[in-house]
Amino acid sequence: MVPLSRVSVWRSQKMLVSLMLFCAITLTTTIYRYELRYGYIGEYFQFFENLTMQCETEEDSETVNTSLKGIWTINPDGRLGNQMGEYATLYTLAKLNGHQAYILPAMANYLSSIFKITLPTLHGRLRYRINWKQYNLHDWMDDEYRNIPGKCVMLSGYPCSWTFYHHIREEILREFTFHDFLKEQTNVFLRRIAGERKNVTYVGVHVRRGDYIHVMPNIWKGVIADKKYLDTAMAYFRNKYKDVIFAVTSNGMDWCKENIDNSKGDVFFSDDPKQSSPADDIAILAHCNHTIMTIGTFGYWAGYLAGGETIYLTNFTLPESPFLKVFKYDAAFLPQWIGIPADLSPLLPKNTSN
Q1: Contact predicate 321/220, CB 8 Å
Q2: Most buried of 58, 120, 176, 353, CB within 10 angstroms?
Q3: Averaged pLDDT for residues 290-315
């Protein structure tokens, strides 16, 4: 007779072997499924590993693999209007120079929550393994940008000008296609403010205030839109179209409600009945027929996406303004847009004589 103690040990060993075999089979199956599903990740990192080595190599070296299209990206600075300008400029310049554009995670997270953008994202860790060629851009297109050297280029600056990408306007508009939930939300808002009225002409109004209240007069020697400008711009559309509705968006809504004439009952504010976000506002403005903007890149993109007629504030700085060293009116606004000159009198010395 076998002792019970030996039987117990044998059973324990058998259970242990079975358990180890089960774990091994499970682990093997899991790895196999993971490779089938996510195997491309290894290829992704290998591709960038090769490209990183390529970017660290001298441009004239024979070891450079010219079949790879390189990595171009742009440093994401600023808020929504700025980053839309950066994205569109990167998209165009990379294409113009024959390289592949990638966006960094910060830009991807920001813009992809609003638009159906298509540029791939460069993994965060890889950004710091690449020897980038830094290249700063003007606000407007320059001929030298047609031949920017380097396979791995990091663009920077605050470009926001139609002169970069207007020749591929339809592609840029596709990149800034809104997600369906924003379209539906915007259509609900527009139907609500139209009420029973038919054949309505929607005019989106963006009033830039916020930090510009102090920045423009104190740093840039300029002004922002006043009540007279908005009255003039709105009168243009009221006189031209039969049934006009104005949808007002702003980062200074209290000022708008106090200064925009709504005696005709045709003005509606985007924060009614709830607080709006930049995504809500740009979607509303882009789905209007026409645009009234003041200053700033957010208003510019509202007009560019909406199409139709756009009225903008022009000549809003003094001739000696440092702003004019980094900004060109004719590059900022499309030729067919309508400019209304700003009232610069608040910037001029006060006449103290009687």
Answers
A1: yes
A2: 176
A3: 98
